[in-house]
Every structure is written in structure tokens, then in C-alpha cells.
Amino acid sequence: MSHVDTDTRRAVEAVWRIESARLVAALTRMVGDVGLAEEFAQDALVSALEKWPREGLPDRPGAWLTTVAKRRVVDRWRRDERFQDRMVELGREIVENDGRDGFDAVLEEDYGDDLLRLMFVCCHPVLSTRARVALTLRMLGGLTTDEIARAFLVPEPTVAQRITRAKRTLVERKVPFEVPVGEDRDARVASVLEVVYLVFNEGYAATSGDSLIRPELCEEAMRLGRVLAGLLPEEREVHGLLALMELHASRFRARVAPDGSPVPLAEQDRSRWDRMLITRGMRALLRSLPPDPAQPRGPYALQAAIAAEHARALDPEDTDWTVIAALYLALVRVTGSPVVELNRAVAVSMAAGPAAALEIVDSLNGSLDGYHLLPSVRGDLLERLDRAEEAGAEFRRAASLTRNERERSLLLARADRADRADRPPTVSPGTVITTEGAREPEDED
């Protein structure tokens, strides 16, 4: 492949990332089937990969893809009687000028609502969490199956199967291409936010592999969050999630040492934190606040408020752990999550000492079995209480449970240090766990 061909292919891929979600969304509204819509969009992409290296990049590449996709639908409409019946059932009037007028009206109008509909379809609760994540990255992120598989360190056939099964489920369950209203709306918005945050979290604190972070996943999640904030400007929790992601992402440059090992929050060089992202996060946080201070805040807004407390502290010693512990208590009351309670224990340990925190951690026994951060935190607290032998055992148990190699190395190093009983005078719990990266156990397909 020549240098020119390589550059053109990269240009095609860049255009596809920008235009694919709009195209698939508009086509889904037209044909009523997200799988079929992607098929037409993919046909347009294949055509671009074939023609653009020879003919050059068109002046309006997005419009070019739209035109080709439109022709594919018209071709199918002409030759496939069942497809004609489907279009009639959907009330599509695509008969004049080879269907051109009707298709142009659909594909060239404002597509914001279509994107929102597509988000709700991809994140529908009838799908498993992993299927929702894969389908969202495929349809809204424009990622290939291989890219999704590499990002999550799973076999490509596994991702392909999840996406195929998800499309089939949407058809079988007759999931409508619509923005939900009424009582269903809040639950459906929460499902979309959950998927976006899962994508971000997998990039921010990878569950497996050799790398602690995968910035490309975080960037994609933040892009989706910004799109969502534009489409649902009145939804405070959307802004809360965006604030949370922006504030966490501001620490990227300081989170990983040159050798790839994690740098604890308390030891990060805060001058390397991205002040622009912090400013954007703070702005989004303000938009997440209820108009009446007495009204409760949502879970993402509360987590963003916790992240903001860290962002305000230019020195770790300036962190207001009492405020953070109170915010975690409010978050526990909203979510009832044992993972949140574990994070609250960390904040309590800094505000009131490790003994008070250990009581909280021990109350979680049985509710977080197999979750490596539970023994991680417990080991840290025991070490700070001069119970080195017990701490070493907890760190080793945590190391055996994590699937991330960088995290495992850190935990084993902590275990060795505890065994030698030569710990530093003070050890921040940030060396093992902070508000960063803790998540609920995932469901299965």
C-alpha cells in the first residue's frame, strides 16, 4: 500500500468516526432496524475505501457517505419485496424519483433527535451490560469489532457475537426507535449514563492487561458524554457524569509513572493535572446542581463533587476529607452500593483514622467476595495500625484477585514491604484505592 493510499485510508477512518453515528441513526429511523441500518452504512464505508484512494477525498465526505447509503437502501427497496413491505409498515413514502426526495428529507435534516434515539436503543435494558457497551461503541463510536476487542482485551469473535446477539434481541423484542417519555424515561437515561461511565471506567482503571489506563476509551466516553449533554441539556445527571469524567481525566498525565506503574493520588504531581479539563469539569458540575440546595443530588453529581474536592486541593494535605466522607455518606444513601461504602471507608480513614474505617470495611465481609479492592483497603488500614503480618496477607489476597498486571505488582510490593515491617511513618490509602476506578461487579452476557 502506497503512502497516499495509507493517508487516504486514515482519512476515511477519521470521517467514519465523525459521521457514522449520524448516518446509522438516520438510517435506523428510516428502516426501523439498527442492524440493517449499520449494514447500509457499512456498505457506504466499503465503497469509500474502494473509491477514495483512486478518486481522492470528496469535498463533503459526510454527504458522499449519505448518498451512497441512500442508494443502497433504494436498491434493496427495489429488489426485496419483504423490505418494501417493511417500509410500508413503517409509513415511509419512498416512491418518487427512485425514493430520492423521501430519503433526502430523512437523511439531511437535523439529526440530534436521531442520535438520542440511537443512544437509547443501544443502551436498552433488554440487553446485557456488556452487550450495551459493545453496541454503543460500535454504533455511536464507530469503532470496529477488532478495536473494541483490543480495548477490552477479549477475543474478537466474543465481541462480534455480543453485537450480533444484541441486534437480534432488539429486533425480537421490537424495541422502538424513540426517545422514552413518562415513568420509563429516568430508568432509560440511567441506563445510557451507566454504559458511558462503564466505557470511561474501563479506560481509566483497566480491569485486566498490562496497562493501567486506556486513554482512547476515556476519550470516547467523554465524547459521548458531551454529545449527550448537548442533546439533553436539562438532565442534571448527564452534566454530573460529564463533570466526573472530565475531572478524573484531568489526572491522566500524573497517574502513571514512566515505567507504567500506577502513581497513587496522594503522590501525584498535581502541577501535571490538566487545568483546562478541571475548569470544564467544574463548569459541568455547576450545571448538575439542583436549583434548590435542599434537593438531593444524583449519584454522578455526588461523585463529581468528590472529584472536585480533590481537584481543589493543590496539595494533598489540603484535601478536606471530612467533606468527602460526608459526600460518600450521601452517595451510599442514594445507591446502597457496598463499593461506595468501601470508598467511604477510605475517606473516613483519612478524616477520623484507620480504626474507624476498619469497622466499616469489616462490615462489608460477604458482600464483596472476590472484589480485590476490599482486601486492598483492609491491608492498607491494617498496615497503618501496625498490624503488618495481617496487612501482608490481605495485600497478597488482593493481588490474587486483580486481573491488572500493574496493580498486581503494586500489591505484591506492598505485601513484601509489610512483611519486612519497614513501612514509612505514614501511608496514604491512596496507594491502593481512592475514588478512582472503583466499580460494581459486571453482569454476564
From TrEMBL:
Q: Which PANTHER family does the annotation name?
A: BLL0085 PROTEIN (PTHR47756:SF1), BLL6612 PROTEIN-RELATED (PTHR47756)
Q: The RNA polymerase sigma factor 70 region 4 type domain covers which part of the protein?
A: 119-170
The domain of life is Bacteria
Keyword Transcription regulation recorded:
yes
Q: Where is the RNA polymerase sigma-70 region domain?
A: 22-82
Similarity comment text for this entry: Belongs to the sigma-70 factor family. ECF subfamily.
What's the protein name? RNA polymerase sigma factor
**Does this UniProt record's set of keywords contain Transcription regulation?**
yes
Q: What Gene3D superfamilies does this protein's entry cite?
A: 1.10.1740.10, Winged helix-like DNA-binding domain superfamily/Winged helix DNA-binding domain
